[in-house]
Amino acid sequence: MNQVKFRIIKMKILLIEDHEKTGSWVKKGLEEAGFIVDITADGRDGLYLALENNYRLVILDIMLPGMDGWEVLRILRTAKMVPVICLTARDAVADRVKGLELGANDYLVKPFSFSELLARVRNQLRTSQPDSKVINIADLSIDLTRHDVQRGGVKISLTRQEYSLLLFLRCIPERSCPEH
């Protein structure tokens, strides 16, 4: 009997944090929790990465070189609705209100507990919907509007049941599936 094997699709997170120790600590913890994490210490670079890639979440410091987090958030909100958690030492109520009014989904003040950050990350991922109507997984593309599936640019014909199964499997990325 042939065994069908699947691989886990990990969610990608962008961490924009200029404090090296904090950045590496958060990155390591998120990777141990099963996420793929890209990190940058510069606001301009972070904005570029956020706009050019399909991240499921952005964790954003406010006090950054190149471009501050407020400006990154302001520009990002005009282009994408990816969930954003501000992670910053700016603890004044006015700063928290500003972050939320600019479009942050959550705001966590440093110092913080990693377990609290992880709970907030999971909550944002659970309650948010992907920004795009097209899901891209490596070279696989699923157009949710046209019910079209392509791999490497080549259209794949699927039955309604196969398409539903593909979407179901895509929606459970945190579950462990055996490898090929």
TrEMBL record:
<keyword id="KW-0902">Two-component regulatory system</keyword>
<feature type="domain" description="Response regulatory">
    <location>
        <begin position="12"/>
        <end position="125"/>
    </location>
</feature>
<dbReference type="InterPro" id="IPR001789">
    <property type="entry name" value="Sig_transdc_resp-reg_receiver"/>
</dbReference>
<keyword id="KW-0805">Transcription regulation</keyword>
<dbReference type="InterPro" id="IPR039420">
    <property type="entry name" value="WalR-like"/>
</dbReference>
<dbReference type="GO" id="GO:0000976">
    <property type="term" value="F:transcription cis-regulatory region binding"/>
</dbReference>
<feature type="DNA-binding region" description="OmpR/PhoB-type">
    <location>
        <begin position="132"/>
        <end position="180"/>
    </location>
</feature>
<dbReference type="Pfam" id="PF00072">
    <property type="entry name" value="Response_reg"/>
</dbReference>
<dbReference type="InterPro" id="IPR001867">
    <property type="entry name" value="OmpR/PhoB-type_DNA-bd"/>
</dbReference>
<dbReference type="InterPro" id="IPR016032">
    <property type="entry name" value="Sig_transdc_resp-reg_C-effctor"/>
</dbReference>
<dbReference type="GO" id="GO:0006355">
    <property type="term" value="P:regulation of DNA-templated transcription"/>
</dbReference>
<dbReference type="InterPro" id="IPR011006">
    <property type="entry name" value="CheY-like_superfamily"/>
</dbReference>
<protein>
    <submittedName>
        <fullName>Transcriptional regulator</fullName>
    </submittedName>
</protein>
<dbReference type="GO" id="GO:0000156">
    <property type="term" value="F:phosphorelay response regulator activity"/>
</dbReference>
<feature type="modified residue" description="4-aspartylphosphate">
    <location>
        <position position="61"/>
    </location>
</feature>
<dbReference type="GO" id="GO:0032993">
    <property type="term" value="C:protein-DNA complex"/>
</dbReference>
<feature type="domain" description="OmpR/PhoB-type">
    <location>
        <begin position="132"/>
        <end position="180"/>
    </location>
</feature>
<dbReference type="GO" id="GO:0005829">
    <property type="term" value="C:cytosol"/>
</dbReference>
<keyword id="KW-0597">Phosphoprotein</keyword>
<keyword id="KW-0804">Transcription</keyword>
<dbReference type="InterPro" id="IPR036388">
    <property type="entry name" value="WH-like_DNA-bd_sf"/>
</dbReference>
<keyword id="KW-0238">DNA-binding</keyword>
